[in-house]
Amino acid sequence: MIVLDKKGQIILNPAKQEVKEFIIKSMVEIAENYDVAGIHFDDYFYPYAGLDDKINDLEEFEQRTDVSMTLGDFRRQNVTDVIKGVHDALKKSSPKVKFGVSPFGIWKNKANDPKGSNTDPKCSQSYDNQYADAYLWVKEGYIDYIVPQIYWEFGHAIAPFADILEWWVHLLKDSKIDLYIGHGAYRLGNEGEFENPFEIVNQLKYANQYPVVKGNVFFTYKTFINKDKSEKGMNELKKLLTRRV
User: Could you tell me if 40 and 102 are in contact, meaning their C-beta atoms sit under 8 angstroms apart?
Assistant: First the structure.
């Protein structure tokens, strides 16, 4: 029932039907028994580190019904099965409960797919590395909202904030799915552009000019209370968030 990633972390095997059903039923149980407004998945994908060479999902892959599926397609299908399954089950049991996901900010790079973002080919792609097809989930309506993790700065050499944000804005502009932008507040005070205490403030101002952007999410909560190098930038963010219009 489990696999390991290359760092030895124990993970439920995404390819097991029993695992898929367990996750879906667990989310329904939460929605039905607790007063929650939504169910949020933060990185429900294959692990960033990759799977262990021995304890992995290759046995399930060899037993796949559709032998034409590549390993990548097989793994993406496993993830999508749960995303769609949770969404459908919640709509049936608790239709007022929202379901959303927070994927890695880059789906694909334009060099690899014309539908991809204006990011360097060297950038990691969630489609290939975590087997998360967020583009499909949006197009098919498998989620109620999405929070892409756009944790880079405006001037990043290969993954500039504005270019990635605009890709998500374009993807969601004619969708019924809500877009919230994930900001890397934890990076405030780090060397480079995040030394500027207004980096996240400027990101909010840029993102929120687009009507399709419904709000902003910050990683991580502790940056709001920490007394460290992020404090100066977080104080500027707090001023912006509490400013009366």
Answer: yes
Distance CA 87, CA 126 (A): 20
Does residue 83 sit in helix, strand or coil?
Answer: helix
CB atoms within 10 A of CB 231: 16
Give residue for tokens 């290969």: 158
- b/e code 77-88 from CB counts within 10 Å (16+ = b): bbbbbbbbbbbe
**Angstrom distances, CA of residue 56 to CA of 9, 23, 67, 100, 222:** 12, 19, 18, 27, 34
Contact 126, 135 (CB under 8 A): no
Using alpha carbons, select from 152, 135, 155 the residue that is nearest to residue 143. Answer: 135
Cis peptide before 220 (omega within 30 of 0): yes
Assessment of whether the complete model's pTM goes beyond 0.85: yes
Dihedral, 33, 34, 40, 42 alpha carbons, nearest 10: -90
d(CA 156, CA 62): 41
pLDDT, tens digit (0-9, with 9 covering 90-100), for 125-134: 999 999 999 9
- CA pseudo-torsion sign 87, 89, 92, 94: negative
